[in-house]
Amino acid sequence: MPGLENNLSVRRCLTFATGLVECLCFAGAVFGWASLVFVLKEDRYFSSLCVNATRLNSTQTLDCSAQDEQFSLIFTIASFMNNFLTLPHGFLFDRFGTTVTRLYGIFFYSMGTLMVAFSSSALAYLLFPALSFLAVGGILFLMTNMQVGNLFGSRRSTIITLYNGAFDSSSALFLIIKLLHESGVSLRAAFLFLSACSVIHILRTFFLLPRKFIPYPLPDRYTYGVSCGESKAANTEVAANSQTHSAAEETPLTTNAPVKQERTFRECLLSKFFIWHLLWLSVMQLRHYLFIGTLNPMLQRLTEGEPSLGNTHLNTPLSQTFRL
Predict the structure, then answer these.
(1) Does the pTM of the predicted model rise above 0.70?
(2) What phi, psi does 54 have (nearest 5°)?
(3) Maximum pairwise Cα distance, the chain
């Protein structure tokens, strides 16, 4: 059935491409927090915490260290939620499958974008739950897209690596919002647009992803998403072939063959390999989050409170990317 094979190939390519765009444009946006802080300061979020101070040379200056502490605390809580909830989200994914997990993530991501959109200097504390919701929704986008690699057989590891790279690269989203804000686009308009994009996430959930999971290795003519009668017939054929294949494998030789004992979850959890890898990853994550959370006050200190110089340092990576 060449027509069916072509349809499956097109659907798999669409699933991969839209998943890459989803990870690149939405999933890891919270890691661009340092860029968004400049926008929030311009809109006078937590500006009441800035106080007049006197320098050593008796000149007056505006001390906004308490404001920076609030912004750092917002990111600290969001990054904690991003990592701490990964384990229960993994159980949620295993128990309920792709559709339920993604709808759960889309809800949190939409709530986060709406909270930022309708926040203001008077409602600055909405940023605390908003950024946490964005972090939770974003990591669920990545988790549910990882399985797309199963559709491409030997290229599975390449697809997963691309998605991870796109997840980290999506930190540029807040930098783009910052540049748009400098061009006159309001923070509310930008985040309302991100919230409206949830419709795309929902459509992709039902049409380009399975209800449960993408198996590995992939069965012949495997279909997923909202399907027509032809696809249902193909699924029936696949199920019949898999039953025949499993029955053929259950010969007396294979039935009496010794079964290799798999390691339990507890044994894996207490293994030296896992513990050392967990320690290494924890140190790397700590360095990563510490840099993002302290980048804005560090730039402010190095530029002696000159906003234009801080903007230049943050905008330089994106401008170099466009030049290339």
Answers:
(1) yes
(2) -110, 130
(3) 92
Within a 10 A sphere around the Cβ of 235, how many other Cβ atoms?
Answer: 16
Report how far apart, in Å, the C-alpha atoms of 281 and of each of 46, 161, 169 are: 33, 17, 19
Q: Burial letters for 208-223: b for 16+ Cβ neighbours within 10 Å, e otherwise?
A: bbbeeebeeeeeebbb
Cα-trace Rg, the chain: 24
- Determine the Cα–Cα distance for residues 207 and 11; give it in Å rounded to an integer: 9
The stretches of the chain forming alpha helices (DSSP H) are 2-22, 33-42, 65-84, 86-117, 127-146, 156-169, 172-182, 187-196, 198-207, 229-249, 252-256, 265-269, 272-302, 307-323
Residue 231 makes CB contacts below 8 A (sequence gap 6+) with 4, 223
Question: Which is more confidently placed, 195 or 218?
Answer: 195
- Distance CA(311)–CA(38), nearest Å, equals 8
Contact 192, 117 (CB under 8 A): yes
Q: CA 169, CA 174: separation in Å to the nearest integer?
A: 11
CB 214 within 8 A of CB 147: yes
Helix (H, G, I), strand (E, B) or coil at 63: strand
Surface-to-core class of residue 105, CB atoms within 10 Å of its CB (0-12 exposed, 13-18 middle, 19+ buried): buried
Mean pLDDT throughout 93-117? 95
Distance in angstroms (rounded) separating the CA atoms of residues 73 and 271: 34
Q: What is the pLDDT of residue 254?
A: 47
Tell me the CB-side half-sphere exposure of residue 264, using CA atoms within 13 A. 3
Positive or negative CA dihedral for 203, 208, 214, 220?
Answer: positive
pLDDT at 306: 64
Give yes or no for a contact between 209 and 93, defined as CB atoms under 8 angstroms apart. no
| Local confidence band at 207 (pLDDT 50, 70, 90 cut-offs) | very high
